[in-house]
Amino acid sequence: MFTLYKTHRPFVGPFDPCPPIRVKSFSTPPNLYIGFQPNNFPQFTPMEALRAGTLWKPLYDPYYNSRELAKGGNPL
Amino acid sequence: MWIYEKKLQYPVKVTTCNPMLAKFLIEQYGGADGELSAALRYLNQRYSIPDKVIGLLTDIGTEEFAHLEMIATMIYKLTKDATPEQMKAAGLGDHYANHDNALFYHNAAGAPWTATYIQAKGDPIADLYEDIAAEEKARATYQWIINMSDDPDLNDALRFLREREIVHSLRFREAVEILKEEKDKKRIF
Amino acid sequence: MTKQLPPEFYELMEQLQAVDFVLVELNLYLDTHNGDSEAIRQFNHYVKERKRLRNAVESIYGPLMHFGHSYSGDPWNWDDAPWPWQV
């Protein structure tokens, strides 16, 4: 499945002092997959665009911290 | 020439009186991958880049100054009425000793802004790759700050700024494609 | 100075910010897509739209721009507070 966040599993050493974070995630935003934006990309309305930080729907990739995500984030 | 417009690019709001967030946000004011660095990097590179992409560097560089003003607004609001005690408790005692509540171009650790943060190699591809990397680094910095912030309004404006990095990165990638001049041609090797 | 702005100011300002944001986005897009006539048509449409909104905002707030890009009131009101980071 296509996703804008990828994960990796860092090595867990037997003598690591802190409780291990077993899965780390990182952002792979849409610009990495577009190359050269085609004409006629779908758009947000002006007010939505301001809120989203972009006019172009396929470029929208909001970032929330874990506490915001636990509350369901706040997508447009 | 530049003309000032008396308005923010985005309506910045801050919910909580929390000077510690200002300490983190200063990274995007006077840090290596901050908005000042971004604006000066692009507006300086444009004098030697091919004509086809001067407009893009001019426009993104100009937008970065609007982002700098947004960051300044956040820091201003977070520290405006903070007492010396609150500044100290927020880890801003070192800052206060030198600057009171004034803003200054340094990073979150207090290192002053330096021109060594920005590059101008004169090679168009090297410079545009530098710009793409700078946008991705700024995007990451916004993520780390959002990770430490529980202020809903502030995070909303930080998400706006992070999204701008994504759009700018794509435009710089397109600029590279334009300079390669092979966008619609078949490779022959 | 503690001149407070009416609620309409915030509404109109946000509408202007939205239209200006579309203009920024189209502008950057057109910098790398200079042959997209539909986007150019849209850009020029919003240029007109921003003029209307800018006049509406200025009628409440005073001049948005300096150096002759906005008309002044009498007395000179360009430098009146509140500034963008204060509103």
UniProtKB/TrEMBL annotation, chain A:
Q: Which Pfam families match?
A: CotJA
Q: What is this protein called?
A: Spore coat associated protein CotJA
Instruction: Write the lineage as a comma-separated list.
Output: Bacteria, Bacillati, Bacillota, Bacilli, Bacillales
Automatic annotation (TrEMBL), chain B:
Q: Which domain of life is it from?
A: Bacteria
Q: Cofactor(s) for this protein?
A: Ca(2+); Mn(2+)
Q: What SUPFAM superfamilies does the entry give?
A: Ferritin-like
Q: Which residues bind Ca(2+)?
A: D59
Residues noted as binding Mn(2+) in the record, renumbered to the chain = E35, E64, H67, E135, H168
Instruction: Give the cofactor note text.
Output: Binds 1 Ca(2+) ion per subunit.
Q: Which InterPro entries does the protein's record reference?
A: Ferritin-like (IPR012347), Ferritin-like_SF (IPR009078), Mn_catalase (IPR007760), Mn_catalase_dom (IPR039377)
Q: Does the keyword Calcium apply?
A: yes
Q: Which GO terms describe its molecular function?
A: metal ion binding
**What keywords are annotated for this sequence in UniProt?**
Calcium, Capsid protein, Manganese, Metal-binding, Virion
Q: What Pfam family is a match, any one?
A: Mn_catalase
The entry assigns this protein to a family as follows: Belongs to the manganese catalase family.
Official protein name in the record: Spore coat protein CotJC
- Natural source organism: Bacillus yapensis
Q: What does the record give as the organism's lineage? A: Bacteria, Bacillati, Bacillota, Bacilli, Bacillales
UniProtKB/TrEMBL annotation, chain C:
Q: Which residues form the Protein CotJB domain?
A: 11-86
Against InterPro entries, the record matches this protein to:
CotJB_dom, Spore_coat_assembly_CotJB
| Keywords on record | Capsid protein, Virion
This protein is called what? Spore coat protein CotJB
Q: Which organism is it from?
A: Bacillus yapensis
